[in-house]
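Methods — Computational structure assignment.
A single polypeptide chain was analysed. Its primary sequence is given first, followed by the predicted tertiary structure written as structure tokens.
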Amino acid sequence: MRAEVPVTTVSAAAYTIPTDLPEADGTAQWDSTTLVVVHVEGGGRRGFGYSYTHACAANLIDTKLAPLLIGQEAMDPPAAWRSMQRAVRNLGRGGIAGTAISAVDVALWDLKGQLLERSLADLLGCYREQVPIYGSGGFTSYTERELTQQLADWVEDTGCRWVKMKIGTQPGQDPARVAAARAAIGDSAGLFVDANGAYSLRQALQLGTRFAAEQQVSWFEEPVSSDDLHGLAQIRARAPEGMDIAAGEYGYTPQYFQRMLEAAAVDVLQADATRCGGVTGFLQAAALCEGHQVQLSAHCAPSLHCTLGCAAPRFRHIEWFHDHVRIEQMLLDGAPTPQRGVLSPDRARPGLGLTLRASDAARYAVKPQG
């Protein structure tokens, strides 16, 4: 019989990092990103997890989730995940609660790897040894020069086979910006667009057809709101051949993904382990994709999804998102570096293989709220 290892401490902290330039997409704009970090201890080891969310998620972890987890078995993250899901029943499982649970779940899995002295890739098992990335940014707040330079750099310097740009803030200007993007990356790289739900159904059908015909756009993300499953299904049914419809990054529960897949709303489902329940929730999304024979793509947080992508059966790629790449390389030891457009888990380091550089993060710390 294995020895029991109780969780002894759970702590959270938030860090808000300004963007390097103002950023916007079709439905939002922002000038900073908040990283919520969790450390879980047990058996003399310390696990690390994180999410991109609001700073109040740290308070929810400290006051609601941490007391629940103290004394629970550190070697059984799914049992802790279930306990946390039940604990937020009256708060709602999505939104802030979902991101809080995600960060804690990641830390628990990391702790398990630390205790066993095995990498998370070894614990989960891998269908593949590496996963491709696509460069993502191209914000609507960028000038055309800033847009085209960023996309071209991903293709030329990072080896990305695909790049993605934001559209939807000014739909009338989108065809010209997409054309500029295509000219910048040439014909050999794939071009993706993301409207973040900014278009109407009619706009999405008209512009999607034009993007495919004129600039060979092969990925149309959230052409309408991801809550509009009927609209997504209509667009998917009428999309040009060779153009995939993608959505799912705002999924917090397996039930959300199940409804999206049953509605035949997407060609590729996107899941984000920092929102959908951490490692445990991401694996559930991967299982649903396998059952529905739909491919899975990871939304953002590349340092986390590097390992999870290898463990998912129908996996396509990871979003190499500008903000998160910048933050993870600034603040996390062990953040992966692409080699010719692919990432590989570091199996030589236990757990996720990530640690927070606390001294570098300190300047961005958010003061806890009473």
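Note: The chain is about 40% helix and 25% strand.
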